[in-house]
């Protein structure tokens, strides 16, 4: 069992609604440390990266809101994650909005040049500054990791691209913008929509997804956006979409990941305590972390 390093990234500049900056605190408050310690892990929490406050900055480009600040945070995150991997530890990153995947993946893929990525999300996060409907960079992080979008996002960590399309799967999307659909088709990315989950079940979806991310790869990253789950279970997210993955299906997905013993890094993002109901979403995040790290009932 690899020792785990928890890294908090209280960034909300990439999201349209405030509050995800409190995600790392909410997840810690929901007893993340205790959960992992009880499972027998050596856990180190290095606290939060320092992140600029929205009030200090102005939007310069409406199609790339807070670009410079988001790039700076992600460069720092990439370094921190890379050092964590060098120290032989598993990076567990707490968001923050989903733009932090740019930095996490930049840090991890440096050491795993053939990284598989599981993108668990109601969205594709495959927009660029040319296709974005909102200008919010959290909707561009998977595209940037694949080498598409603004060069400063694409070149985070000093190299690009981080991952190739054949090693990526998206699980749970139910809201994709026209530019995202186009990119998915062009690149041939494997996507398991809610339709697929309804039709063949999460067990088969995960079997197929695991094949994709382990085929010829040297590591697997889980990027889990809590809005992938149904808003009934995870109301504390900034961009909720009805008809999501259930609590049970998400646990099954995490348990199957744990059984496969392939994960080399993970991030849990978009927890927004301001919009939550009694820290419910953070509690679900911690429960899912437990399953992803091997928690079983019997
Ligand atoms: N990480 C997220 N919650 N992303 C939501 C993105 C929503 C929309 N597709 C956009 O680009 O603005
Ligand atoms: Mn999302
Ligand atoms: Mn997302």
TrEMBL record:
Entry keyword Transferase = no
In short, the EC number is 3.5.3.1
- Does Manganese count among this protein's keywords? yes
Similarity annotation: Belongs to the arginase family.
| Keywords for the protein's UniProt record, in alphabetical order | Arginine metabolism, Hydrolase, Manganese, Metal-binding
What cofactors does the UniProt entry give for this protein? Mn(2+)
CDD domains in the cross-refs: Arginase
Question: Which InterPro entries does the record associate with it?
Answer: Arginase, Ureohydrolase, Ureohydrolase_dom_sf, Ureohydrolase_Mn_BS
Give the top-level enzyme category.
hydrolase
Q: How is the cofactor bound?
A: Binds 2 manganese ions per subunit.
Q: Which Gene3D superfamilies match?
A: Ureohydrolase domain
Q: Which reaction does it catalyse?
A: L-arginine + H2O = urea + L-ornithine
**Pathway where this protein functions:** Nitrogen metabolism; urea cycle; L-ornithine and urea from L-arginine: step 1/1
Protein name (database record): Arginase
Q: What GO terms are given for molecular function?
A: arginase activity
């Amino acid at each position: 069992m690899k020792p785990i390093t928890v890294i908090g990234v209280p960034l909300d500049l990439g999201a349209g609604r405030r509050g995800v900056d409190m995600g790392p605190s909410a997840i810690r408050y929901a007893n993340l440390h205790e959960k992992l310690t009880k499972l027998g892990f050596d856990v180190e929490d290095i606290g939060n990266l320092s992140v600029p406050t929205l009030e200090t900055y102005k939007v310069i480009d409406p199609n790339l809101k807070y670009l410079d600040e988001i790039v700076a945070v992600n460069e720092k995150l990439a370094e921190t994650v890379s050092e964590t991997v060098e120290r032989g530890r598993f990076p567990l990153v707490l968001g923050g909005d989903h733009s932090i995947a740019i930095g996490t993946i930049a840090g991890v893929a440096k050491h795993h040049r053939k990284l598989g990525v599981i993108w668990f999300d109601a969205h594709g996060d495959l927009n660029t500054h040319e296709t974005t409907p909102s200008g919010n960079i959290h909707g561009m992080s998977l595209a940037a990791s694949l080498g598409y979008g603004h060069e400063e996002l694409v070149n985070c960590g000093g190299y690009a691209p981080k991952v190739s399309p054949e090693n990526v799967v998206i699980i749970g999307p139910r809201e994709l913008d026209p530019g995202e659909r186009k990119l998915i088709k062009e690149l041939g990315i494997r996507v398991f929509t809610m339709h697929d989950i309804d039709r063949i079940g999460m067990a088969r979806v995960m079997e197929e997804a695991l094949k994709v991310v382990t085929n010829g790869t040297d590591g697997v990253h889980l990027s889990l956006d809590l809005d992938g789950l149904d808003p009934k279970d995870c109301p504390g997210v900034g961009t909720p979409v009805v008809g999501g993955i259930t609590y049970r299906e998400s646990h099954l997905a995490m348990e199957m990941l744990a059984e496969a013993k392939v994960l080399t890094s993970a991030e849990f993002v978009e927890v927004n305590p301001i919009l939550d109901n009694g820290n419910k979403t953070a509690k679900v995040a911690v429960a899912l972390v437990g399953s992803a790290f091997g928690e079983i009932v019997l």
